[in-house]
Amino acid sequence: MVSKSPLQIQAYDYLKEMILSGRLDPDVLYSETRMSAEIGISRTPMREAIQCLSQDGYITVVPSKGFMLRKLNEQDMEESIQIRCAIEGFCIHMVASQTNTKKGQKLLVTLERLLDKQEKALGSRNGPSRENLESGSCSSAGLEQFIEYDHQFHLALVNYVDNREFR
């Protein structure tokens, strides 16, 4: 796996925060150059961050023009969920068959720790409550924290089977 530079991580985190907080409009074409200037970095780490965000499904790259927020229709979301369920179902099958191994036990501890963190993000003073999460009226910081732990949880499952295509 290719390691990310600190500037690429900074650009990725900045853009992801802008997307998740709703500060970027889905109907606007954004310039890599303008975004680079906005946070004071060169275009190379921004370009790499944009590629990562595209791979993660947050944006769509428009060659030689910039990027736009990815618009998902109902069918796109359903298909993505089906793919994720198929991959994660296989991963869970692998984990279940290896729960008595050192590697399996280590993963179970990691998953439990991440679930605890998600629960705390839902119940923390600054985080969303279950009701607010379901209604969509939760704080941005708490929701982002919950999403990050959820992402780590699912990555831990997928990384367990060590399949590059799944990643």
Can you describe this structure?
- With 167 residues, this protein is mostly helical.
- The chain has 2 domains: 6-69, Winged helix-like DNA-binding domain superfamily/Winged helix DNA-binding domain (Arc Repressor Mutant, subunit A, Orthogonal Bundle); 74-160, no CATH class.
- Helices cover 65% and strands 5% of the residues.
- It contains 7 helices and 2 strands.
- The protein has helices spanning 6-20, 32-39, 43-55, 74-96, 102-123, 130-135, 140-160; strands at residues 59-62, 66-69.
- Strands 1-2 form a two-stranded antiparallel sheet.
- α2 packs across α3 (43-55).
- The longest helix has 23 residues, at 74-96.
- The chain is elongated.
Secondary structure layout:
Layout lengths: L5 H15 L11 H8 L3 H13 L3 E4 L3 E4 L4 H23 L5 H22 L6 H6 L4 H21 L7
Give the tally of structural domains.
2
Strand tally, please?
Answer: 2
The quaternary organization reads as single chain
Mean pLDDT equals 86
Assign the structural class, choosing from mainly alpha, mainly beta, alpha/beta, alpha+beta, or little secondary structure: mainly alpha
State the order of secondary-structure elements, H for helix, E for strand.
Answer: HHHEEHHHH
End-to-end distance, in Å?
Answer: 10 Å
- Binned, the helix content reads 55-70%
Broad shape:
elongated
